[in-house]
Amino acid sequence: MSSHSRKSNESEGTSIKSLLEKIAQDVQALSYRRLQHDVQLKERDAQFSLIQDEWKVVKERDEYVQSKKSSHTSSSRGNESYGEQSLNINQYYQPHPRRVRKEKKECPREVRVDLPHFHGKENVEIYLDWEMKVEQLYACHKVSEENKVPLATLSFQGNAMYWWTAHERDRHLHKDPPI
Predict the structure, then answer these.
(1) Which of 6, 102, 136, 160 would disulfide-bridge 156, Cβ 3.0–4.6 Å?
(2) What is the pLDDT of residues 12-55, one digit of tens each?
């Protein structure tokens, strides 16, 4: 075997060895990135479940407050009827003057929510970040279900805005039910 072919084989062996080392480094880097991505997904899931738990607590608190309000109004009505009956029993009874409270009508307040812009890019992570931020803002500002979609569409930019406009146009043309 000539020295030239031996050197050629050694250089090929060295280049293959360096190539394998480079591949091993790349695989290690990819697995590290994958691990980081999995950790980020778990953190997002944990944040999402916390938001859902907070939302449940807020709903339960609102239901509790509503039940207290309704029980208070029913008990005050019972007292008024008791006063009227005692007036019938005793002609000289004069009930204390009561202030008539005007019940406040709950007017839907206008919510000012500054949502982050959404451009409709095909990156799933960007969309998930945007969606989580929007849900957090909705929960914070107590946005009603019927206002969520119109508010979200106001933040659409670029491709997302064009897609939404086309979707709405098609929906009105075909008389589909709203989303």
Answers:
(1) 160
(2) 777 888 888 888 898 898 888 898 988 898 888 888 888 888 88
How far apart are the C-alpha atoms of 90 and 58, rounded to whole Å? 49
| Sequential DSSP letters for 10-66 | HHHHHHHHHHHHHHHHHHHHHHHHHHHHHHHHHHHHHHHHHHHHHHHHHHHHHHHHH
How buried is residue 116: exposed, middle or buried, by Cβ count under 10 Å (0-12/13-18/19+)? exposed
Domain locations along the chain: 114-179
Cα gap 93→84, rounded to integer Å = 10
Cβ atoms within 10 Å of 130's Cβ, excluding its own = 20
Q: Please tell me what DSSP assigns to residue 156.
A: B
C-alpha triplet 27, 29, 33: angle, nearest 5°:
115
Q: Do residues 120 and 163 make contact, with C-beta atoms less than 8 angstroms apart?
A: yes
Which neighbouring-strand residues pair with 156? 118
Tell me, rounded to whole angstroms, the distance of Cα 145 from its chain centroid. Answer: 11
